[in-house]
Design a protein that fits this description.
Largest sheet: 2 strands, antiparallel
CATH superfamily of the largest domain: Fumarase/aspartase (Central domain)
CATH class of the largest domain: Mainly Alpha
Number of helices: 17
Order of helices and strands: HHHHHHEEHHHHEHHEHHHHH
Number of domains: 3
Structural class: mainly alpha
CATH architecture of the largest domain: Up-down Bundle
Bound molecules: arginine
Number of strands: 4
Shape: elongated
Length: about 450
């Protein structure tokens, strides 16, 4: 079947700024022009792109690859372009393919043909790799800060509720009484590991790719260390072919986001269950719930449900990235343009979810009496009774069987007073356990971690 050729083509993709000028006789098919363009989403890299260009042109001037006065003109022009952007005056042109060409074109309109010297010793391939690294370095900082806030909210809630006891669960069956603080601090530990993961991944983001040019390096006498210094990178990439095609750092970042979402969705699920009439363990804050359009009595845990569902989105972002990279030959391939939307989506979803969970925790009321009541069911003492028999010399397996028989109603105990939830919790006082002193030590250690990383405790304790 013959494919009909579009009657009209567009003189786009940088026709005006020149990247099509030499090689092509025909314009682009209009549908393909749209398909090929990334400006609708990569405009988000505007500031990073300008920062990278400023560093690059300073280096070109310093190295006398272009005249110093041209470098100054270009830098000033770039600053005007940024200024337009910051003040909402920048006009994006859909037909200029991507953010790089949009900026290049705007620069040409500001300072004329000298702007064409900016792209000396550079390709969009190393340029976009740099932009994404700069972007993720920034976003990592925002997510790290949000995770510390979340941990601070968990810690403060744990402190406030130190004497609250509830049943701990395995298989969602009541198992043994625990402190609510201990339960909350379990999530504190998860989000702390998440924070560490973002810190660690920054080591691999922290590599400056400019100078790789299209794939093989450049014939100009550039100074890559200078550019790295301008942009606050601690090292330059070691292999130009790897540098223009590597997106491992973005995959890793998106994995980190996925795991944050995993933890958030577990916590969300607990709040959803706990807020049901069947449990009635918590009262979620109105600010994070919605009502039903038909059932006046309803208060739904929407924030938690949405976080639970958005976890799937972020997993999707991760799988998208991995799949884009799978089987890609070296070096740059246009496939890599598709890396941005999943990364942006993961970043936004995680940041919003973490912030919403933080607000939700701060406003949640735990029903202490109801929790204690649930923890007071006598069978929750079964392990402790078996432990007591074992302490008297009975092999634990035998003790386990005897208490099991009591629970089943086969035998009974007389004259035995089962321990209270408080006593059971307090008899577990080793490092990492749920006894009060253990939990206090855990919270102190957690607070030290937060303080070392810039957290200030609330005045009201
Ligand atoms: N918009 C492109 C991207 O996001 C920029 C790099 C284009 N490079 C190229 N050789 N066409 O990947």
């Amino acid at each position: 079947m013959a494919i009909e050729k579009s009657s009209k083509t567009v003189n786009n993709s940088s026709g005006s700024s020149g990247i099509r000028k030499g090689r092509f006789a025909e314009g682009m098919d209009p549908l393909f022009a749209k398909f090929n363009a990334s400006i609708s989403f990569d405009r988000r890299l505007f500031r990073e792109d300008i920062a990278g260009s400023v560093a690059h042109v300073r280096m070109l001037g310093t190295q006398a690859i272009i005249p110093a006065e041209d470098a100054i003109k270009i830098e000033e022009g770039l600053k005007q372009v940024l200024d337009d952007f910051e003040n909402g005056r920048f006009e994006f042109q859909e037909d200029l393919e991507d953010v790089h060409i949009n900026i290049e074109d705007a620069l040409r309109k500001k300072i004329g043909d000298v702007s064409g010297k900016l792209h000396t010793a550079r390709s969009r391939n190393d340029q976009v790799a740099l932009d994404l690294r700069l972007f993720l370095r920034n976003q990592s900082g925002l997510i790290e800060a949000a995770l510390l806030d979340l941990d601070a909210a968990l810690l403060e809630t744990a402190k406030y509720n130190i004497d609250v006891i509830l049943p701990g669960y395995t298989h969602l069956q009541r198992a043994q009484p625990v402190r609510l603080s201990h339960h909350l601090m379990a999530y504190f530990q998860m989000f702390r590991r998440d924070w560490e993961r973002f810190i660690d991944s920054k080591k691999r983001i922290d590599e400056m790719p400019l100078g790789s040019a299209a794939l093989a390096g450049t014939t100009f006498d550039i100074n890559r260390d200078l550019v790295a210094g301008f942009l606050n990178f601690s090292r330059v990439s070691r292999n130009s072919m790897d540098a223009v095609s590597d997106r491992d750092f973005a995959v890793e970042f998106t994995f980190n986001c996925s795991l944050v979402m995993t933890h958030l969705s577990r916590l969300s699920e607990e709040f959803i269950i706990w807020s049901s009439a069947e449990f009635s363990f918590v009262d979620l804050p109105d600010e994070f719930c919605s009502g039903s359009s038909i059932m006046p009595q309803k208060k739904n845990p929407d924030a938690c449900e949405l976080i639970r569902a958005k976890t799937g989105r972020v997993y999707g972002d991760l799988i998208t990235l991995l799949t884009i990279l799978k089987g890609l030959p070296l070096t740059y391939n246009k496939d890599l343009q598709e890396d941005k939307e999943p990364v942006f989506d993961a970043v936004d979803t995680v940041l919003n979810s973490v912030k919403i969970m933080t607000g939700l925790i701060k406003g949640t009321k735990f029903r202490a009496e109801r929790l204690l009541d649930a923890a007071s069911e006598p069978y929750l003492a079964a392990t402790d009774v078996a432990d007591a028999l074992a302490r008297q010399g009975l092999p634990f397996r035998e003790a386990h069987a005897r208490v099991g028989a009591i629970v089943r109603g086969e035998t009974s105990v007389t004259g035995y007073v089962p321990p209270t939830p408080e006593e059971m919790v307090e008899s577990r006082c080793q490092e990492g356990a749920t006894g009060k002193q253990s939990v206090i030590r855990q919270m102190e250690e957690g607070e030290k971690f937060l303080l070392q990383n810039g957290y200030t405790p609330r005045a009201d304790g």
